[in-house]
C-alpha cells in the first residue's frame, strides 16, 4: 500500500520537475511531449492503485501528504502535455490532418513499406491530432485502434 503511494508521489513530483524544466527550456518540445505523455499514463495507473476508502482523488492525496505541485496538477487536469494544443475551434483542420495522415499511411502500405521506421512518425502525428480533438470521447474506439498499431 505504501509502495503504491510512494509511486504516485514520485510520478507527481517528476511531472512537476518536467514542467519546470520545460519552462526553463532545458528540455526540447519533442522530449517533453514524450516524457509528459508517459508520465500521465503512469499517473493514471498509480492513482488507480491508491484510490479507495482513504484516498478518493489526487487533490485529497496532495492535501494529505502536503504535496505542492501546481504545474503537475494543471497537466493532470488537462490530461495532455502543454505542447499538444486543444483545437476546440479547429475541428475541420483536425479532420483534414487526420485524413491526410491516413492517406499517407495507405500510400506507405501500397508501396509495401510497412516497417515501423516509416509508419511510426505518422502514427504519432495521428495520435496527437486525435488527442487535440476535444469533441472525441476519451474512450473513442479509433484512439484505441491507433494505440494498438
TrEMBL record:
Supply the Pfam families for this chain: VPS28 (PF03997)
**Which UniProt keyword terms apply here?**
Endosome, Protein transport, Transport
A single GO BP annotation from the record?
A: protein transport to vacuole involved in ubiquitin-dependent protein catabolic process via the multivesicular body sorting pathway
List cellular component terms (GO).
ESCRT I complex
Instruction: Name all VPS28 N-terminal domain ranges.
Output: 1-86
Q: Which family does it belong to?
A: Belongs to the VPS28 family.
UniProt-recorded name of the protein: Vacuolar protein sorting-associated protein 28 homolog
Source lineage? Eukaryota, Metazoa, Chordata, Craniata, Vertebrata
